[in-house]
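Batch job 17 of 40 flagged for manual review because the log was empty.
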Amino acid sequence: MKIAFIVEPFPKVSETFILNQITGLIDLGHEVDIYARHVGDISKIHPDVEKYQLLERTYYYNKGPDNYIVRMIKALIWLTANFSKHSVPLIESLNFFKYGSRAISLELFYATIILLKHKQNYDIIHCHFGPFGLKAVLWRQIGAIQGKLITVFHGYDMTTYLRKNGEQAYDLLFNLGDLFLPISEHWKQRLIKMGCTGKIAVHHMGIDCQRFAFAVRKPRDDGQVNVVTVARLVEKKGIEYGIRAVAKLRANNFNIQYTIVGDGSMRKKLQRLIKKLGVGDAVKLLGSQQQQEVIGILNNSHIFLAPSVTSKIGDQEGIPVALMETMAMGLPVVTTQHSGIPELVQDGISGFLVPERDVDALTEKLSYLVKHPEVWSKMGAAGRSFVEKHYNINILNNQLVEIYQNLLDDEFREIKEQQKV
């Protein structure tokens, strides 16, 4: 199959779940192209990006030069040179009556140029995040790209995006898209409430379990317990509450160290909080790390903390991939009753679920795990088993190919039925 992935930045360190799908599909023998709005952080490229030469498969679309006059002149030159070959999609991309600001700004025109330069005919157009499904449905509508259109819904696209753009923001996509793949049952129910009557199927993001070796967690000789969080430093990750919980434990003489891996807009605020609480010796902000560096940190940790919350503007998680990775490695987890997380973490079996923003509850569950290291191995084994069964990227990618094939088979049957009529 020929498959186009429509994403925002590429490559992006924090979106290994998209990378795992792309490389998995290539391993299964399919041809994958990537269309991204802009280049991601190339200072820390995942090894698979180079191994699979993915930058050679990636095409960047944007609105063209920042200067609008220059943008128009270049558009006119390209239009004149290619009009006879691609007149219909090019003219349609400039239809400001139909497409408004997207046409006036030449955003659609420049995206159309990139699509027409490359392989615009695909079996599957696979869009990660709702807004990129909307882009692709317009591209297909004007004839710049062809293929069955699938949109994956993750988190911000079901929360803050809707808050900003309204509950009807995806109506066009719901009407013209072919399949919708929320990453959790939680988001599936949200789509239904929003009026999505098309084909909906839950399809989890996953991890390559072989890359995350399981190890039984054992106490250190000096009694120190290492707690870790791997997350972007943004509000919905709830890291503030994790720091406050660790500070309470330290105040009660618990021998605990808290390592936070990741970077983001809240870094300075969290640094101030650490200083205010007087736990600079116990809480460390390491910044972003490569996946192998993260694995090394996890190998030296005992408990994973993911205190996710709904942000003040309504932003939520999907199901954090970092949770899957740490559970695969055998760490018991303490996390929250947030979004799709209860679909991954079994409360009291592979870890503990507590209410959002409840520092006392976080402190209580961390305290229990610190005092009872004998439960670490049992919880860790339960987590590994659950991830292997439900979030194994190899199984999920095979399922994804089946989803693609069923969608194409449905189209084939529809064509045959129309021919009979």
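Reviewer: the log was empty due to a logging misconfiguration, but the result itself is present. The mean pLDDT is 93. Unflagging and moving on to job 18.
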